Every structure is written in C-alpha cells, then in structure tokens.
C-alpha cells in the first residue's frame, strides 16, 4: 500500500504541495482536472483553495477527492 496524505497546501497554478505519511513530499498538478465532470468547481479558485486532508487523501467541501494512490504515484517528489 502506498503512503497516505498527512498534510496539503494549495499552491499557485492548481498545484497541491503534499506531505505523505512516509515523510516524502511531492507536488501534484490538478490543472488537468479543470472543467472535468465533478471537478468543474475547481475552476473557482476560492473553492479549489479549500482543499483539506480527509481520510488519508485530499478532499473538498462538496465531496470531490483524489485517490491517495494517484496523488502519491503521479506527484513530483521533492526533498522537502
């Protein structure tokens, strides 16, 4: 099982700075989700900025979330 999300910080250009439960950090770009299905609300920057950690992943107030495995596997890892 891949690590889960410990912390999230919203960055510019629809990116999320993530800290995983194994201590790694990464950046996940959400821009490809804009205008897609239930993620259409992300076009409102104020709404997108409400991202929070919930249940080991990143979630938004109206129920959108992103699979924690996707966030881990597809994020650009950094040294911290």
What proportion strand?
35-45%
What portion of residues is helical?
10-25%
Structural class: mainly beta
Number of strands: 7
Describe the 3D structure.
There is one protein chain. This protein is mainly β and 80 residues long. It has one domain: NE0471 N-terminal domain-like, CATH 3.30.2020.10. Helices cover 14% and strands 36% of the residues. Strand 1 and strand 2 (15-20) form a beta hairpin. The protein is globular. The model has no long low-confidence stretch (mean pLDDT 96).
Give a short overview.
This protein is mainly beta and 80 residues long. Helix content is 14%, strand content 36%.
Descriptive key words:
80 residues, mainly beta, 14% helix
Topology:
Blueprint: E1 5-11, E2 15-20, E3 25-29, H1 45-48, E4 52-54, E5 57-59, E6 65-66, H2 68-74, E7 76-78
Antiparallel strand pairs: 1-2, 2-3, 3-7, 4-5, 5-6
């Amino acid at each position: 099982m891949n690590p889960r999300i410990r912390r999230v910080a919203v960055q510019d250009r629809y990116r999320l700075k993530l800290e995983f439960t194994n201590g790694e950090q990464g950046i996940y770009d959400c821009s490809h989700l804009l205008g897609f299905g239930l993620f259409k609300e992300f076009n409102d920057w104020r709404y997108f900025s409400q991202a929070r950690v919930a249940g080991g992943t990143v979630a938004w107030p109206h129920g959108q979330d992103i699979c924690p495995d996707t966030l881990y596997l597809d994020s650009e890892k950094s040294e911290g």
